[in-house]
Design brief:
Elements: E1 2-4, H1 12-20, E2 24-26, H2 31-34, E3 43-46, H3 53-57, E4 64-67, H4 71-77, H5 81-108, H6 116-128, E5 133-136, E6 141-144, E7 168-173, E8 175-177, E9 180-181, E10 184-189, H7 195-212, E11 215-217, H8 222-234, E12 245-247, E13 256-261, E14 280-283, E15 286-289, E16 293-296, E17 299-309, E18 312-319, H9 337-354, H10 360-369
Parallel strand pairs: 1-2, 3-4
Antiparallel strand pairs: 5-8, 6-7, 7-10, 8-9, 11-18, 12-13, 14-17, 15-16, 17-18
Helix pairs in contact: 5-6, 7-8
Length: about 375
Amino acid sequence: MDLFIDENKLNDEAKALLAENNITVRPYNDIYEEVKNLKAGESVMIDPMKLNYALYNNIPEGVEKIEHQNPTILMKAMKNDVELENIKNAHIKDGIAVTKLMHWMKTNVGKIKITEMSAARKLEEFRKEQEGYIRDSFEPICAYKDHAAMMHYAPTDESDIEVLPEHLFLTDTGGGYIEGSTDITRTFVMGPVADELKTHFTAVVRGMLNLSRAKFLYGCFGYNLDAIARGPIWDLDIDFKCGTGHGVGYLLNIHEPPTGFRWQIVKSKNEHHKFEEGMVLTNEPGVYVEGSHGIRIENEMIVTKGEKNEFGQFMHFETITFAPIDLDGINPAEMTKFEREWLNNYHAKVFEKIGPHLTEEEREWLKEYTRAI
């Protein structure tokens, strides 16, 4: 068997393992000539979503083309028990870093100069303190006030602004650790905010936690469940023009096919596969008001099996992200009893898992920000 790959991507251990399994490593671009050697009557599997036209055009006439998604995509998306345990460990480390950032920003804003970029650098410092940290898993999105209304804004030297003791600050970032990659978003309340912002904040939190506690039958797709997260936001006659969540790779691509959460099918996104046990997905509804503010709360979840009975195999999600959700932005009166219970239980777990890794001052602060409401 031949593997066409840039050899620089393989270390000596990987090369030895491939050789032991009778896999020959060949230069990546050799595939363009190799496919010409296929004979009429033979078959080749192709993924139209990924195959470029030059390679497709080199396949000889008479060769059967079987159109199918690359089978390794689903294999990678369904993590095994070792991978899942490692990913959970990575999220504890990342939760420590994000919690430290939240404490640092909320206790220092107005006392020292904090900007979007300096906040991003501070979070990187906290992540570097964690054992096994490698790099950021993607370019950090740290956005203050109306900058957060731009979903994929990233601060530059020209756009960087100071964070003041008012309004909202959004941080959508991730860490790459030996145990896996993370993707987490939190929106911090930096000072007094209008009632409208609290209503939007509360709706986003409600949407996120309602999707987190969803139960569903095996065979459901992202578009079957997406409205659960959008419901509280749609109730305000607001929508967000992006997906609610995506698959996450194991120290690979942060946006991993073949599934995700959307209310409509977008074939180009390659997110239209039913949920399988072991998949890891983000859950990140939001509200974005141009010229004013952006709010997003994001946790990661594992697809797990629940009860199996005469109705079929029930499934649910296990939340694996642990960092406080800013209670300063929440109006408990706008939440149901079950929503408050879920949030209180979640925050109890945050304190249990993250608290022991903080300083005494940070731990006392976290106790206040994970209190029951």
